[in-house]
Amino acid sequence: MASTTRVPGRDILLAELSGVRVRSDALFEIVRPEALYERPIPERHRIIFYLGHLEAFDWNLFGRELGELKPFEPKLDKLFAFGIDPVTGKLPDDQPGDWPEPGEVLRYNQRVRALINEQLPVALEGPEERRTTIAQFLHVAIEHRLMHAETLAYMLHRLPLNLKCARQSPTPPRPPQVRPQMTEIPTGLATLGLRRDSRVFGWDNEFEEHSVFVPAFRIDTYKVTNLQYLRFVAEGGYGERSFWSDLDWEWLQATGTLHPAFWIRRANQFFFRTMFDEVPLPLDWPVYVSHAEASAYARWAGKELPSEAEWHRAAYGTHHGAERAYPWGDEPPRQGLGNFDFHYWDPTPVAAFPAGSSAFGVTDLVGNGWEWTRSVFAPFDGFEPFPFYQGYSANFFDNRHYVMKGGSARTAACMLRRSFRNWFQPNYPYIYAGFRCVER
Fold it and tell me: Which among 2, 18, 136, 419 has the fewest CB atoms less than 10 Å away?
């Protein structure tokens, strides 16, 4: 196996699985019944797929180890087994009639859960080796579901407002206006990844731990805001060829993109598409853009995106050389330290959570939008794919995906760990992802 995993108490793991099921169920309740066969993002499956995918994934995963789980709907096991990458060369062309009725999918889900619930407690009382395997599978099932709770939010964000049942969100802090500035980060080491012998759960691309020497640099203290990006748009950034790579320019021309996907232009005014509303563009919120757009802005500003190691150094490093578990220290994530763990539906101002700043005073590094880096998603030395999920990372080591770090408002607390790596291809504009720039 790619890693061994510390085995928490049986009841803790089972409670976590139950809890994330409740969270994903609640997300589907936002979708009005008539919208289940909608495809809000052209590159993705229809919403009905994801209703069945989460349970099919668990069924296929645990079925590898729990011999008592006998297939009862093999067609659905296969139909709902795998999602698709945002860009595969062509768009899916299936029709609503190609998918089962919601009632059939829900009955499948209920039976899958009942059978898994019946077998897991028994397996977690078995021999140590089997308990360790089941514990790792549970971590995979839990985090896989939480990942989809976030990426499904990207889809629902694009769903017309009349096809959603609105939910309330707490009122975020209203910090004073801040001016863009940069923070000096001294030379030091950045420790990336996890030690395989730590027995801490991580996905295969998080191993093996290693250190990277990072020369001194300067980084934006705050994420780039809508106000800053508005200037780039106003000064013709989307029409200046020199700011864009060949592939990014080709994408720009093919799609006719003239501004971020989360912005809506009406006459001479921009609005922001929130999850449940459309509001005048909040100028102190982070801008959400694709990697292509972030890179173009950085070139326009005479800077560049940080590398994965530079981002790590700014987020977790200290003046005396030690590294923190989180930007603010070793305390686990909690409310008041950032916009993460499903507390808010939308971005918050970039200076809203000063208590979550890094040792160098860089704010908002964890939560409030993933942050693009210029690092291509690639394996660390010592990489070993999960034997039970060979393609989870390896399928994306193709020089066409870029590392994102940090987390968004809809990223679960458990995935805010220092070693976690996210990735997307550069021309996918629907992610809760922003950026900051560096210079030397």
Answer: 18
- Residue at 4 is within a domain: no
**How would residue 10 be classed by pLDDT, with cut points 50, 70 and 90?**
confident
Domain that holds residue 296: 182-225+289-439
| CA atoms within 13 Å, Cβ hemisphere of 228 | 25
Condensed to tens digits (0 to 9), the pLDDT of residues 201-224 reads 999 999 999 999 999 999 999 999
The enclosing H or E element of 103 equals: helix 102-123
- Residue that the structure tokens 């393609």 belong to: 391
| Pairing assessment for the beta strands 210-214 and 188-192 based on DSSP bridges | antiparallel
pLDDT tens, position by position, 366-387: 999 999 999 999 999 999 999 9
Q: Which residues of 397-424 are buried (b: 16+ CB within 10 A; e: fewer)?
A: beebbbbbbbbbbbbbbbbbbbbbbbbb
Closest Cα partner for 76 from 118, 39, 48? 48
Domain shared by 85 and 20, yes or no: yes
What residue has token string 């987390």?
407
Beta strands in 46-112 (DSSP E): none
- End-to-end C-alpha distance for the chain, whole angstroms: 42
Least Cα distance to 26 among 134, 164, 225 occurs for 164
Domain harbouring 329, CATH code: 3.90.1580.10
Q: What is the dihedral of CA 240, 218, 370, 261, to 10 degrees?
A: -20
Q: In 388-438, which residue ranges form alpha helices assigned H by DSSP?
A: 391-394
